[in-house]
Design a protein that fits this description.
The complex is a heterodimer of chains A (537) and B (194).
Chain A (H helix, E strand, L loop, with lengths): L2 E5 H11 L4 E4 L6 H9 L1 H5 L3 E4 L3 H13 L4 E6 H6 L1 H10 L5 E7 L12 H8 L3 E2 L4 H18 L3 E6 H4 L1 E6 L22 H24 L4 E3 L7 E5 L2 H7 L10 E4 L1 E2 L3 H10 L2 E5 L5 H7 L7 E3 L14 H7 L26 H12 L8 E2 L24 H11 L6 E5 H17 L5 E5 L18 H8 L6 E4 L6 H13 L4 E5 L4 H17 L1
Parallel strand pairs in A: 2-3, 2-4, 4-5, 5-7, 6-7, 10-11, 10-13, 13-14, 15-16, 16-17, 17-19, 18-19
Antiparallel strand pairs in A: 1-8, 6-12, 9-11
Helix pairs in contact in A: 1-2, 1-8, 4-6, 11-14, 15-19, 16-17, 17-18
Chain B lengths: L1 E9 L4 H14 L3 E5 L10 E9 L13 E6 L2 H6 L4 E10 L12 H10 L3 E4 L1 H8 L5 H9 L7 H12 L4 H22 L1
Parallel strand pairs in B: 1-4, 4-5, 5-6
Antiparallel strand pairs in B: 1-3, 2-3
Helix pairs in contact in B: 1-6, 4-5, 4-7, 5-7, 6-7
The site of thiamine diphosphate has 25 residues of chain A, from helix 5 and helix 17.
């Protein structure tokens, strides 16, 4: 079959289409976004009637996917690592309910925090839920593992995690497709109480999950994704997880490693294979992108056994993503001196686009807040977070999606005035509404600015679930109509906007200001498409 | 055959159009390819790079190791210097000379150029001006690719075919413009070699 040149994300998406999914659910988040975007754009997926849905947040994604699994069909749900924090409740509990139709959670971690608040390792979550985890080492494996993951999920009636990292998600390589298979028919769970987690039922289901652990491990041993490759030099053994295997191989141009290697791409960890490499070698080097999970497992709390090298003993840096040079150093190889970066090279942080509506909003907000000391603006996550940087330096927090409104409420409760929350439209429907309800119920003295650019900008312009709904939501939650103020963030309206902001800052209670103007990027894209359409006709 | 290339620029400058042409030509040649891209936050006007690896053998790592890139192709002069640690000691640096200034502390342009000229193998080309003379500054990336082409080990005709295939949808004018841009860049590099 012909090779397709696909990003890791796209390989997973094509794998899902070919493996017979009926639906894919996601909230965007770098580096996972391109999976769902690919299915969205796929004609084939459309022909097959595959549902591709951008949901309000990761929790609603996960639950919709679980519902599709309940109905007997295969479903995939995709998110970035911190998205799994939001979806943790359905994620953990779905390991107890189990699946009916195949169910895969794709979680994309971001070691080095290229576009994230932290570099948490989702394998921890997978282990926490006690479900099988697949960690592909390349794009082809990512594709193949989707088929395999659905088989595994349906064989054991259990959700499966597919864990990737930024590097694989956003790197392209040739992928060979498998013949595509049919979607499942609707089929209810055999046991209609399987998904009822009343304590008495949950206890039994949980026992089933525990009893299945040896079977999951046996699969890890036999699947072929975990491979023991012998080597002559037993002074060291190497365990290479997921992508780390490639960085290891990169350092041996003939692809022959002198040491025994355990390539690890499926969890739970296969004890027998680990015992074998441990017994045969004098010491073990563990290479893994993310947290030192396998390394800690081998080392134990007291390091009583053989020497274990990795992130904990400094053989590999404690944080950040791996690369071939880091691995070369861990292998004790001599690495050449590098050419230095000339001193004059200046940092070039990302910035708000020219003409971005957020700029006008922050210029007005900064001026409106001039008479108070700095440090009163609780922000959220999105393009607007870039206003933390010069020249605006408008915001003082960015923690997790939705935290702007709730933190402003807490600070206002503590007596801070003014307490301002700044939140994007997509973030507002992701996690802002419930916080606003809290503030209304407690009559907290906060000013909430919902920056409505009609899109999910930071991740490349996916639709916003908030579109045309923000005023109605605020009203519905109980914000007084007189204190829901819509304005157009443009230079020419600056004085007017400034006056509105000042008024609402002074108002004692919950007020909402909605600066509304479309993101320049999506606007330009729409215009280009319109132009193309016109040219065609 | 093995070429490890760092593509550099600023988010929004479209470095991936260069990668797409090289990638297409490499696949036509039956070569293996891996290409690590930057998506997400940095695309908003931050520094972006792509690791493009081509080989007649299976490629292991998606990332290029330090001191092992054969060349840096950059659409922005200061950005070409940011990735020097990746460049082999005898590697090539091929860069546009037109700065993209979206930061207040952008260094002195003459000093940036002097740093580039310090590299033993360099091609510094005013791709915007050349592309504008040909009809549109939009073709600047193809001028830069043309300037890199003598050092790529990919048949020049295959690069032209890739442009035809990828820009074909946009009409013959666009194809011609980009092929002219490619040829002009190549000519510039060959002349500056002498
Ligand atoms: C739980 C979680 N999910 C997803 C993300 C990724 N993410 C960061 S900002 C953002 C989009 C925010 O869109 P919006 O609030 O409309 O602001 P804009 O970028 O359009 O200004 C997303 C999806 C995240 N950081 N955390
Ligand atoms: S993508 Fe849109 S919202 Fe984000 S900075 Fe650019 S114009 Fe502003």
């Amino acid at each position: 079959m012909q090779k397709l040149l696909l990003l890791g994300d796209e390989a997973i998406a094509q794998g899902a289409i070919d493996a017979g999914i009926s639906g894919i659910y996601a909230y965007p988040g770098t580096p996972s976004t391109e999976i769902t975007e690919y299915v969205h754009a796929s004609k084939e997926a459309k022909q097959k009637g595959i549902v591709a849905s951008w949901t309000a947040n990761e929790k609603t994604s996960a639950e919709a996917a679980l519902g599709m699994s309940y109905a007997g069909k295969r479903a995939m749900v995709c998110m970035k690592h911190v998205g799994l924090n939001v979806a943790a409740d359905p994620f953990i509990n779905s390991s107890v309910t189990g699946a009916n139709g195949g169910l895969i959670f794709v979680v994309a971690d971001d070691p080095s925090m290229h576009s994230s608040q932290n570099e948490q390792d989702s394998r921890f979550f997978g282990k926490f839920a006690m479900i099988p985890i697949l960690e592909p080492s390349n794009q082809q494996e990512a594709y193949d593992m989707v088929h395999y993951g659905f088989d595994l999920s349906e064989k054991f009636k259990i959700p499966v995690m597919l864990r990737i990292t930024t590097r694989l998600a956003h790197s392209r390589s040739g992928v060979v497709r498998k013949p595509s298979r049919e979607q499942n028919q609707n089929k209810l769970p055999e046991n209609l109480r399987q998904f009822v987690l009343l304590p008495a039922i949950a206890r039994k289901q949980y026992k089933d999950l525990l009893n299945n652990q040896p079977a999951f491990e046996k699969d890890s041993h036999n699947s072929g994704y975990n491979k023991y490759i012998d080597g002559k030099d037993k002074s060291m053994g190497i365990i290479a997880c997921g992508l780390a295997y490639n960085y290891l191989m990169e350092n041996y141009p003939d692809r022959v490693v002198p040491y025994p290697v355990l390539k690890l791409s499926q969890y739970p960890t296969p004890t027998e294979l680990i015992r074998k490499i441990y017994n045969e070698c004098d010491k073990i080097l563990v290479l893994e992108d993310g947290y030192p999970i396998v390394e800690e497992l081998l080392k134990g709390a007291l390091s009583l056994g053989k020497e274990i090298k990795g992130r904990l003993d400094g053989s590999v840096p404690r944080d950040g993503e791996l690369n071939p040079t880091i691995v070369a150093k861990a292998l004790g190889m001599k690495v050449p001196d590098v050419k230095p970066i000339p001193e004059l090279v200046a940092g070039r942080p990302p910035s708000l686009c020219k003409g971005c509506p957020h700029i006008d909003s922050f210029v007005a907000l900064n001026e409106a807040l001039e008479k108070w000391a700095k440090g009163r603006v609780f922000s959220d996550i999105g393009c607007y977070t870039l206003s933390a940087l010069p020249p605006y330096e408008s915001i003082n927090t960015c923690v997790d999606m939705g935290a702007s409104i709730t933190m402003a409420k807490g600070a206002a409760d503590a007596g801070m005035f003014p307490a301002v929350a700044v939140i994007g439209d997509s973030t507002f429907t992701h996690s802002g509404i419930t916080g606003l309800l809290d503030a209304v119920n407690d009559k907290s003295n906060i000013t909430v600015i919902i920056l409505d650019n009609a899109t999910t900008g930071m991740t490349g312009g996916q639709p916003s679930a908030a579109l045309d709904k923000i005023e109605a939501i605020c009203k519905g939650v109980g914000v007084e109509e007189d204190h829901i103020r819509v304005l157009k963030p443009l230079k020419k309206h600056h004085e007017e906007n400034l006056a509105i902001m000042k008024e609402e800052l002074e108002y004692n209670g919950v007020s909402v200001i909605i600066p509304r103007r479309e993101c320049i990027q999506t606007l330009n894209k729409r215009m280009r498409e319109k132009f193309k359409e016109k040219a065609k006709n | 055959m093995k070429k490890d290339i760092i593509l550099a620029g600023v988010g929004g400058q479209g470095i991936l159009s260069i990668a797409a042409i090289i990638g297409y030509a490499a696949l036509e040649d039956g070569l293996h390819l891996k290409q690590a891209e930057v998506h997400g936050m940095s695309q908003r006007g931050g520094d972006v790079q792509s690791h493009l690896r081509i080989s007649d053998k299976e490629i292991a790592s998606d990332l290029i190791a330090y001191s092992s890139a054969d060349m840096i192709i950059s659409v922005e002069p200061m950005e070409s210097l940011r990735y020097l640690p990746f460049l082999k000691h005898d590697g090539w640096i091929i860069t546009n000379t037109k700065p993209f200034i979206n930061i207040v502390n952008y260094p002195d342009e003459a000093k940036v150029l002097a740093e580039i000229k310090k590299q033993p193998h360099n091609v510094a080309i005013d791709a915007e001006t050349i592309a504008s003379d040909l009809g549109s500054a939009k073709a600047a990336n193809m001028v830069i690719l043309g300037a890199a082409s003598p050092y790529l080990d990919i048949d020049f005709e295959k690069l032209k075919n890739a442009i035809k295939a990828i820009f074909g949808k946009k009409g013959q004018d666009v194809v011609d413009l980009n092929i002219n841009a490619l040829e002009s860049g190549r000519k510039f590099a060959q002349q500056s070699k002498q």
